[in-house]
Amino acid sequence: MKKIVAGVDEVGRGSLIGPVYAAAIIFKKNIKDKEIIDSKKIKKTKREIISKYIKKNSIWAIGSASLKEIENFNILNASLLAMKRAIEKLKIKPNLILIDGNKSPKIKNCLVKTVIKGDQKIKEISAASIIAKVSRDKLMNKMSKKFKKYKWDLNAGYGTKDHIKAIKKYGITKFHRKTFKPVHKMLSLKKS
Length: 192
Known about the structure:
By secondary structure, this protein is α/β, with parallel strands linked by helices.
């Protein structure tokens, strides 16, 4: 029996807004592309080109967990839920799932291994990080058109100086994660 390996990674965990995304990738053939590395180490335009290449040469799926799920279950559990959804959407069942980090969702009838810094060590996980990042960035760009002052197209909702300054000046939106610092801190200041 042929070993089918899936790589899984999530993005958006540290963002102050919106959902968390995860991708699961199974390569159709052995890929030795040197450009498939951790998504954080690739410039945005190049990431989009590599993403198209990965999609052409793999079976892939995206899963997400909503803002409400993040607020209700916490970011770790929401990230695991997004990963599980991505894995369950794959059209082919893998024999082995390699997940970036040290925590994994519960997946029945499959060997699951966590790999710390897996997005830097394993091509399938690197590819998953790229697909998840490009997918979430598309959502951030779309959201940014309505909320230009927060510059989400540039910061993906992370707590950059510009984003924090915008929160202080314009307040929080319905897309902000209210349980996250500094968003939670801003809400506390308003109440006192």
